[in-house]
Amino acid sequence: MNAADPVRDLPVSAPHERGDAARNRALLLDAARRLVAERGADAITMDDVAAAAGVGKGTVFRRFGSRAGLMMVLLDEDERIMQQAFMFGPPPLGPDAPPLDRLLAFGRDRLRFVHTHHELLSAAGREPASRYGAAAAVQRTHVRMLLNSAHSTGDLDGQTDALLALLEADYVEYQLIERGQTLQTLGDTWESVARKLCGR
Amino acid sequence: MNAADPVRDLPVSAPHERGDAARNRALLLDAARRLVAERGADAITMDDVAAAAGVGKGTVFRRFGSRAGLMMVLLDEDERIMQQAFMFGPPPLGPDAPPLDRLLAFGRDRLRFVHTHHELLSAAGREPASRYGAAAAVQRTHVRMLLNSAHSTGDLDGQTDALLALLEADYVEYQLIERGQTLQTLGDTWESVARKLCGR
Fold it and tell me: Mutating which of B126, B132, B153 best tests the A interface, going by the most A Cβ atoms within 10 A?
């Protein structure tokens, strides 16, 4: 996250918010996360989120400004949760598993994440700067480190970029909708290509 | 090329055009191709093309409708020339070379192509349908066939998609502009990843 991060800079996550406000914010994000998991992000309105959280619609708008604002905060929180999991969490994602196992788990985990948040990620992906800039740097560093630890040889940057293309939001949605793939088969593809690059 | 191909359906390439018209069209496309190679597509105006071809500006507009129309016709013609080269041309691109050599040559050739036409390819790439649809199918089939002939094992569709991501217009321009890469170093990366997937 660098100086131009629009999510972090939103006023909604100020550390000084009062207890009620912080509680409402957590309630609303939990409700939104649950609804997104059940129906997909496209099908959710601010009314739905307010009703599911048991608060007034005005509270949702005061907290997040707009539907887009809510989805950005949700994406950012989930991104942080995922980063915690693959950097410090339990195996197979976290550091106590062998590097190839971590790489395989990372791909399957990220496919679920990308599918959940594809609407926002797809919009962000249309800006080359955000697509290849700071937002993706943590993942690229992680995948490159795992390829290196798994003793892959050759151009690791190129291998990292080629692998990460299989987790790109527009690509994943196209494969799911137009090509009859599932998160399971896309995870199998990730595993096959990752093993190939690591020589197993 | 399928039913919805906007380039093929343009009236400018009608086989019945009169001799003068066909000659002007060829002159203009040659001039445009030369100018794009010299200065890059972004720097070229319809006036430049008319002057370089030695015809009036009105003729350029009658032939191609607009600057975007001219660039689309040029992209389409170059795409056909490139397809001819990798399907039927001399080695190392064409069928008389070993499959891995053809795959390496394809990547380097395509990098030059993508850089030349990045403006239009980038605009087309923002539409997922065109990006993963008919326009890219010929290349995907070709790369998959070469991986198979080079005795790569595993998920060849996934390997093909991962490899082709290294030739994507936005990615290539980002690497050239922001990452200090050159067409040479990007070609080296293509070679390294392709060899890895083919086990050499």
Answer: B132
Same structural domain, A41 and A116? no
pLDDT along chain A (200 residues), means of 10: 44 58 88 88 89 92 87 85 93 97 98 88 66 71 96 95 94 93 98 92
Going by C-alpha positions, the residue among B73, B44, B49 that lies closest to residue B60 is B49
Closest CA of chain A from B156, distance in Å: 9
Name, of A104-118, B10-24, B38-52, the range with top average pLDDT: A104-118
Note whether A102 and A200 are same-domain residues. Answer: yes
Whole-complex ipTM: 0.77
Half-sphere exposure of B105 (CA within 13 A, CB side): 21
Question: Is B80 inside any structural domain?
Answer: no
CA distance A116 to chain B (A): 18
Q: How far is B57 from chain A (nearest CA, A)?
A: 34
Q: What is the CATH number of the domain that holds A30?
A: 1.10.10.60
- Interatomic CA distance for residues A16 and A174, integer angstroms: 42
Residue A193 has its nearest CB partner, among B128, B155, B168, at: B155
C-alpha of A132 from chain center: 15
CA separation for the pair B176, B181 (Å, rounded): 5
Structural domain that includes position B150: 89-200
How many Cα neighbours within 13 Å face the side chain of B107? 28
Answer whether residue A130 is part of any domain. Answer: yes
